[in-house]
Amino acid sequence: MSSGAPISSWEELSEKIRDKLEEAKARLSRGTYEELVNKLKEVTEKYGLAVDEAIRIIDNVVVEYENSMVEPGEPVGTVAAQSIGEPGTQMTLRTFHFAGIREFNVTLGLPRFIELVDARREPSTPLMYVFLDEEHRYSEDKAREVARRIEFTRVVNLASEVDIDLVNLRIIVKLDPVMLEDKGVTVSQVVKALEKTKVGSVEQSPDDPLTLYVTLNPEESLSLLDLQKKKERILNAKIKGIKKINRVIIQSMVNEEGKTEYYLVTEGSNLREVLAVPGVDYRRTYTNNIHEIEEVLGIEAARLALIREMKEVLEEQGLDVDIRHLMLVADVMTFTGRVRQIGRHGVSGEKYSPVARAAFEMTSQNFFEAAVRGETDKLLGVSESVVSGSIVKVGTGMVEVRMTLPGRSKG
Amino acid sequence: MASKRRSKSSAKAKNVRRKVKINILEHELVPKHEVLAPEEAAKVIKELGVRPEQLPWIRASDPIVREIGAKPGDIVRIYRKSPTAGESVAYRYVVGY
Questions:
Q1: Which candidate among A23, A174, A307, A317 keeps its CA 20 to 30 Å from the CA of B71?
Q2: B82 contacts A297? CB cut-off 8 A
């Protein structure tokens, strides 16, 4: 029952309803607005749309949008806590600790979620996804090149045998040719690394190039314990790679362009150094260590990583939690510019009100300390109101009625 | 400011043989940050009806803050890509710790 002829050119229609679109743009979120415009455009071009029809559609969308917004005073934090907490109980029953992702054991499920919310310094299974640049991402050999560059390799990874020769006072290092090949290390690199430890002079055995002798200085007084220590030093001598990156595996996937792309998954994480390695695409490389992300990429990146990790844990468990709850948790955790845990040393422990802190944990101790410091509490927060039996300032409890009596000034 | 930061990060890269120029602002996890001019900051504060320190904070030592050269007391506008709203604008107050 529309008046006005349908218009089937979007340019013409959008010109006529320009004011209305401007108004909608100001009142809608950007994503919703863009979707609205795209749909309108599609419908106009397909079926034709009259001006007043278009205006009615826009009005309806705006009304729907505003109706679906959170009301002022809605206890969103409580809702988020319940919405994550209830599915969380199912999580405990389903998995306990580890679930294997191909070759790695990754902490998943509730233990991982607790780790995230507690803002642990280091995850129990630190992991990195290292993406490669244009040059290295399409060939497995090139990917292996980068993998070798970042994998932390020590002598112990390459030696098949390390013995102490007490007669000649030297340490014999026998290298494993398979491991050398696998890690892409030459014998001369090992010799260099051994020389760096300054344990003794290094030489190759004349009849076997893979056997190295580290001759110790006989003038030093050497107890058996010293020898053991020197052996340890040799075993731990770094040859190449990045600290903490203990193992690297190459994986492949089909990317958006339909090409097979190789990337690396590492056991252990060291974001700052891996980003600077040649061949690594530093724009996409990712770690599951939130604190590292905070340090290297800033608090906003840490917020996004938190959301992403929480979402992945819940999704992997088959739980459907609205992402807005997770966003709220991440917002609260990153509020002060660093990642705080939800708990005693973070969000709950730093509350302003002593009653709220006492209601959370260690009641008497918190009251005692607050008394020592002479703190006051206006009992305005949620926990304080529950404790003191007053109306919680949430939802309808938030509004107050004030009357201006005749003959009295306002206020 | 920016060039100072870059020289610092390339010095770190030296440990790993060759140096690679990395610009953390390009990382996919980093949304666009911008420092507000004082007049604009005042306008935002008035619109939101809060005091600056009631905004979420961002540390002056935050790598992104250093990269864009914001100082304590500034307000940073962040264009977040949001899965629910498309793009949302957030503000953070730069604090000096």
A1: A307
A2: no
